[in-house]
Amino acid sequence: MDLLRFITAGSVDDGKSTLIGRLLYDTDSIKVDQLQAILKQSKNKGEGEIDLALFTDGLRAEREQGITIDVAYKYFSTDKRKFIIADAPGHIQYTRNMVTGASNSDLIIILIDARQGVVEQTRRHSIIASLLQIPHVVVAINKMDMVDYSEEVFNAIKSDYSSMANQLNIKDVTFIPISALVGDNIVNDSVYMPWYKGQTLLHFLENISLVNDINHTDGRFPVQYVIRPQSDDLHDYRGYAGKIVSGIYKKGDKVTILPEGIESEIEAVEVHGKEVDEAYAPQSAVIRLKDDIDVNRGNVISTARNQPKVEQEFDATICWMDSRPLVAGNKYLLQVQSKTVRCVVRDIHYKLDVNSLEKLTDVQQVSLNDVVQVTIKTASPIVFDSYESLRANGGAILIDETAFTTVAGCMLH
């Protein structure tokens, strides 16, 4: 059974948490004791019905204010697929939280209030989805019950968003009219919108294909751990464990060990402790090489075609996540896959307005939630692909070396 990671985004009060609560509730994915606790809290709020948003709004401030502040992760499964949901906050001051939740998502659900249509935060979230190159976008036009399930309202919002999506080069967009509160077109078809001939949201999530989202051509295998049992029966065993980021690895394949550039050949591929004919992204595997080479954690075993970049200085688009400002010249740790190196942020080229995509130059410092393009210089070469060409191997994080906390998410170029 495969896994779909998706994130919800939208303006404040568009119904993100309620939508996730509805998915969990209608798929029987809520434990009895949790349901009883939520029923009690809903009664205390005097709303008369169960407050579905309470399933995801876990912080006291979220429940008191009725908003989402942190990214809430929820897990559920059906007979067809497993799901990890990230419920991202809508406020602009929590842009970093949305970037964190969206960075490894296969799909984004952007909620639009049918009464409000496309608003500024809709555009901001769509820009972030475009920047992070999330493969699939679902525009869920919510609260259709409050506009009398009007087809005209749905079509008008669909037209407005389609124009914006074309400008942002968002290609795969699906529109679904829903009511998260009532349950229309979430798990079950709505009897109030016979004019809508498409799938329910859950049916769409269960059946969307993710095969084409994974690059099975360019082999990238960052080594996470070197296995050397040195026992009597495995005296000469040397295996390299990790997760295949992209590509397919087979016995006999010619490979290059980066950043050193040493060439070798695959002697065997193992998955779950057994030799297999091939392993492919995103499987975890162990690769054994024919040659006795010094390979360490952080090295990348790459297939011969379409080699990645090996550089010490490069540009990156970063989302700054720290309360302390970024100033050019500051030193950090950069982590790319399993490789961590010291680095310095040399230049800040511009700040990106996430509401308009305008590039603002002459940036003196970078504050919390700012998205900027910078030049980074590392102490030793790193192996990466440009984020535009291979998303799975083009992301990184900046780490404060003193506190060992993440201060920025990076898209490498």
Q: Can you walk through the features of this model?
A:
The protein is an alpha+beta fold and 413 residues long. It folds into 3 domains: 211 residues, 3-Layer(aba) Sandwich (Rossmann fold), CATH 3.40.50.300; 84 residues, Beta Barrel (Elongation Factor Tu (Ef-tu), domain 3), CATH 2.40.30; 104 residues, Elongation Factor Tu (Ef-tu), domain 3 (Beta Barrel). It is 18% helix and 36% strand. It is built from 7 helices and 22 strands. It has a 6-stranded mixed beta sheet, sandwiched between helices. A 6-stranded antiparallel beta barrel has the order 7-8-14-11-10-15. A 6-stranded antiparallel β-barrel has the order 16-20-18-17-21-22. The chain is globular, with a radius of gyration of 24 Å. About 3% of the residues have low confidence.
Short description:
The chain has helices spanning 16-26, 32-44, 60-65, 95-102, 120-131, 151-167, 201-207, and strands spanning 3-10, 72-77, 82-87, 107-113, 136-142, 173-177, 220-227, 239-243, 248-250, 254-258, 262-271, 274-276, 278-280, 284-289, 300-303, 309-320, 331-336, 339-352, 359-360, 371-384, 395-400, 405-412.
